[in-house]
Design goal:
This protein is an alpha/beta fold. The chain folds into 3 domains: about 140 residues, NAD(P)-binding Rossmann-like Domain (Rossmann fold); about 150 residues, no CATH class; about 70 residues, RNA polymerase sigma factor, region 2, helix turn helix motif (Rna Polymerase Sigma Factor, Chain: A, Orthogonal Bundle), CATH 1.10.1740. The chain is built from 18 helices and 11 strands. Strand 3, helix 3 and strand 4 form a beta-alpha-beta unit. The chain binds nicotinamide-adenine-dinucleotide and magnesium ion. Magnesium ion (MG) binds next to helix 8.
Length: about 400
């Protein structure tokens, strides 16, 4: 039976890897909406190839070019934030949420409010909205499937078990490309060095997050909302080979781990086929060739981001949303050459210390307001820590 799918953030790393799997199973899928921010040529090529019903760009200034690219094809086009939300509201069997950053939050909420199945890669949306999102999932009977490899691993390790029987959940972290760098050398890490991930091929923002370990910090918060076992039961271990994607320890002493090649098509496929399995072209895991799997404790002196994320979660209220917003602003400033690599965590810490973050957001609007406020504060902190 054919199933329908929309991909929010279709031109990105996760979006393209999802489409790669769909391309190999074309008869099984009907593509409804594909969206991008402003990668018009890439988006136009994809909607033509997959015969999508509608193409949407988030940036309105890119609409004219999109219309021109798709003229005469019969494929509808739209642009702007509300158009992204409308695209996410179109009825489909599955929505892939693969926009980067809090920019994806309102569309994800729209897909959830439709009560559909949402495969979530866009961790910033869940980190920002927290309970507002999980409550909406409950209220609207939506199904949230985790695409993030760690959370997908945990989801798989929890299958058939009761969450009450979990003793700990351990998120594995590759440690990123700068894992072995000294504190002094980290000061002068360049954007090119920070995005050169040893195991995964990802978008620029998450690659920098991986280098600062903020990716694991965001994932710690993401795990808290997806698998509420209590903060003390959530652990992080550095595992440079990225073969074990995370683990669940049960109260009888059994630990279940999910292993796989470091290829996002594996967790994406597990969402696409859920609750069944599907073929992927990913290379099989060859443990003898890998030889050894190693583990080390995270070093929060050189990489403070996981501490900041834990503190934001402990502080509660809108602190996680502020942490995420500050990080987005700081990462963009680092990629733009405005601040040093090590100042990313400093900007985040400054925003957490300066903001009044104790109130609980009750709605999407309140989350977005918290995000906005933290962004503007982070902009000031970037100015304070600017290079030169
Ligand atoms: P990417 O930068 O490669 O792609 C982002 C996509 O979102 C693109 O299609 C882009 O056009 C769109 N986009 C960007 N800004 C937008 C905006 N303001 N409005 C509308 N659309 C916008 O990012 P990615 O690496 O594919 O990551 C996407 C999400 O998945 C992130 O939240 C990331 O943390 C998460 N994730 C990615 C990976 C990975 O391997 N890439 C793994 C796990 C989780
Ligand atoms: Mg991950």
């Amino acid at each position: 039976m054919t199933r329908s799918i929309s991909i929010l953030g279709a031109t990105g790393s996760v979006g393209l890897q999802t489409l790669d799997l769909i391309r190999r199973n074309r008869a099984e899928w009907r593509v409804e909406a594909l969206t991008a921010n402003c990668s018009v040529k890439e988006l136009a090529a994809l909607v033509r190839e997959f015969g999508a019903a509608i193409a949407v760009v988030g940036d309105e200034s890119c609409h004219a070019e999109l219309r021109q690219e798709l003229g005469g094809t019969g494929i509808a086009t739209a642009a702007g934030r509300s158009a992204l939300i409308e695209a996410a509201q179109r009825p489909v069997d599955m929505t892939i949420a693969a926009i980067v950053g809090c920019a994806g939050l309102a569309p994800v909420m729209a897909a959830i409010e439709r009560g559909g199945t949402v495969a979530l890669a866009n961790k910033e949306a869940l980190v920002s909205a927290g309970d507002v999102m999980t409550a909406a999932v409950e209220r609207h009977g939506a199904t949230l499937l985790p695409v993030d490899s760690e959370h997908n691993a945990i989801f798989q390790c929890l299958a058939g078990n009761a969450i009450e029987d979990v003793r700990t959940i351990t998120l594995t972290a590759s440690g990123g490309p700068l894992r072995t760098w000294s504190a002094e050398r980290l000061e002068v890490a360049t954007p090119a060095e920070a995005v050169a991930h040893p195991n995964w091929d990802m978008g620029a923002k998450i690659s920098v997050d991986s280098a600062t370990m903020m990716n694991k910090g965001l994932e710690f918060i993401e795990a808290h909302y997806l698998f509420p076992v209590g903060l003390d039961a959530l652990k992080i271990v550095v595992h440079p080979q990225s073969v074990i994607h995370s683990m669940v320890e049960y109260r009888d002493g059994s630990t279940l781990a999910q292993l796989g090649p470091p290829d996002m098509r594996v967790p994406i496929a597990s969402c696409l086929a859920y609750p069944r399995r599907m073929d992927t072209p990913c290379s099989p895991l060859d443990l003898a060739a890998i030889g050894e799997l190693t583990f080390e404790a995270p070093d929060e002196a050189r990489f403070p981001a996981t501490r900041l994320a834990r503190e934001a979660l402990q502080a509660g209220g809108i602190a996680p949303a502020a942490l995420n917003a500050a990080n987005e602003v700081a990462v963009a400033a680092f990629l733009g050459g405005k601040i040093a690599f090590t100042k990313i965590a400093v900007v985040v810490e400054d925003v957490l210390a300066a903001g009044n973050l104790s109130h609980q957001a009750k709605s999407l609007e309140e989350v977005l307001a918290a995000d906005e406020a933290a962004r503007s504060l982070a902009g000031q902190m970037v100015g304070k820590h600017a290079i030169g």
